[in-house]
Amino acid sequence: MHIIHNIVWAPKISQNDVEKNNSTFTITPLPRWYWVTIWNSLRRILLSTIPWTQVTWVKVKWVNHEYSTIPWVKDNIVDIMLNLKDLIISKKDDWIEWLKLTKNKSGVVTAKDISLPAWIEILNKDLYITEIDQDKLELDIDIRIEKNVGYLSIDELKEKEDDVNVLLIDANFSPVLNVKYNVESTRVDDITNLDSLILEINTNWVITPVEALKFSWDMLKSYFSLFNEESMQVEWNFIWDVKDLIDREKEDVKEELEKETYTPIEIMGLSPRTLNALINWNILSIEKLTKCTETKLSSIKWFWKKAMTEIRSSLKERDLKLLWDD
User: How many domains does the chain have?
Assistant: First the structure.
């Protein structure tokens, strides 16, 4: 919202979906340079604070070093770990989980070969992990996944892990792949020094761009509320509630629509007694009359059977009718 010469408007946000995981949001109008504050704050949270589930270590049977190889397995352990790092995992809770990958037949090993509990889903089931060249060779891998935020290096993971046979994988937990912005000049009436902020958010399908944006806003709001826990308003006449402004704009639009569809009841050619009965009950337009039932009209004082016949006939001429009684 903004105030210039007692003119008040609320910024609006619109969404344009390029794909399910790629959306563009336009926030406009904004006072000049407000986009810097909004962009910097949202970008930081979008890229570093949204939680996601990642693989943080693996344990491969008969292997105790990431530079090892397994006979008849096409890829070395490092490549297998890097492939597992690309798993896109959807998990609601924040508990650490252990998954199991076992295969003893020749062929390509993909993410769909991983055993999963019902509450976990792998979205890229066709992800290539490795390939086995000979039957009866058992590939046995334990995979630990956890939900977190930000980035965890191998050194940080070592501090939390005592098992020397575990192979650690550094993890970037953000489900947001990229965030771009653009700023364009805009105007409201004769006020030209305003901006539009265009955000493009690309995610990895675990979370939609609009969900990512809402999470970021909620996170910002939780921190900004610390500066005014008592909700005290300073210079209240220069601070406006955006929600209140939007509600008022909607109400104004509703009133305008009602004015456009207001047809005076006097043009129906009703008898004076019938017309006065309706006016006394504040039924002043044909639109309001058509929202009444016969039961409601019959309850009006001095509203006789003849009046009902008049109304039915007049409405029929206009291809209209009263509401049905329930």
Answer: 3
